[in-house]
Amino acid sequence: MDSNFSEKDLVNTIERESEFLVKIRNLKVYFYTEEGIVKAVEGIDLDIKKGETLGLIGESGSGKTVSALSIIQLLPIPPAKIISGSILFKTKDLLQFSNKEMRIVRGGNISMIFQDPMTSLNPLYSVADQIAENLRVHQKLDPNEAKTEAIRMMKEVGIPDAEKRSQDFPHQFSGGMRQRIMIAIALSCRPSLLIADEPTTALDVTIQAQVLYLIDKLKQKYNTAVLYITHNFAVVAEIADRVAVMYAGYIVEENSCLECFVNPAHPYTRDLLSSIPRVDRKLDHLEVIKGSIPNLINPPSGCRFHPRCKDVMDICSKEVPKRLEIAPRHFVRCHLYS
Ligand code: SF4
């Protein structure tokens, strides 16, 4: 150890380390398809602190969902394969866990909600039975206790007449109410981490705002960290403490939410933000990012954003930019900062 490293430094380091709930390092995920190898996630590093909301944002196909499914180990293997990396959850590497161990973690310590609750809920069981099942499996509650707690959770997520409606089936609820039930299932065991994969995309704007408010309220109540996946900066602004921007398998920028809006550093983040229509800016036309996200079977060399980047330099097509910390907890992958 460095002899200049004081006891106070050591304590600070340990405290800083223990703030983190999830530490992803060099995670690489490929899909082996008939057309070729899809390099979906290319060595990402990401930290999630206890109790914080991290917004993971990017275009479709940027690798957001694949990264999240790697944490909870719901990737379809094959064709997917985790090539390298580690996913520390508290102090354990989830990638070393057996299927049996992951079944204990899933639902109990880490929960996930998806865009379409209808495909996640079982149409053959009442909603209360589905919440209660999670409680029986992970909290070892007896059937009566689990049912009572399921109804309490239904009330907590704002289902009107919860007791009366507890024996209804998923198809008897609206889209917004079904998403509330998914949130009740996900949070019933007080997980340390909730992964929310575009949970409001299929909802209209007023219901979307209610669901975002509910996630935020319950996250604070249970001190749950949230990994919120979206392609919508407005949603990120509403809910996130920090933002990670993904492009073609890389996290290209990570910063606090406020700083990301005020002081975006990566050209892709800047382009994404300037393509959002704003009421305070009169425009003849909307800004667009030219081109489209690359085919990840044969991605561009060097920086994968270089064919679309306004600031491209010679080095950009030759070398993959390194992840640099340009300010405390502000990370960027771009040769402009090398
Ligand atoms: Fe643009 Fe080069 Fe930075 Fe990539 S590395 S974002 S191409 S300036």
Structural commentary:
The protein is of the alpha/beta class and 338 residues long. The protein has a domain at 7-109 and 191-287: 3-Layer(aba) Sandwich (Rossmann fold), CATH 3.40.50. It is 34% helix and 24% strand. It contains 12 helices and 12 strands. It has helices at 7-18, 64-72, 99-105, 117-120, 127-139, 143-156, 162-165, 175-187, 205-222, 233-239, 257-262, 267-274, and strands spanning 20-32, 37-49, 53-57, 80-89, 92-93, 110-113, 193-197, 225-230, 242-247, 250-256, 323-327, 330-333. The strands form 2 sheets. The protein has an 8-stranded mixed beta sheet with strand order 6-7-8-3-9-10-12-11, sandwiched between helices. A hairpin with a 2-residue loop joins strand 9 and strand 10. The structure holds iron/sulfur cluster. Iron/sulfur cluster (SF4) is lined by residues 267, 303, 305-306, 309, 311-313, 316, 321, 334-336.
Summarize the structure.
By secondary structure, the chain is of the alpha/beta class. The protein is built from twelve helices and twelve strands. The longest helix has 18 residues, at 205-222.
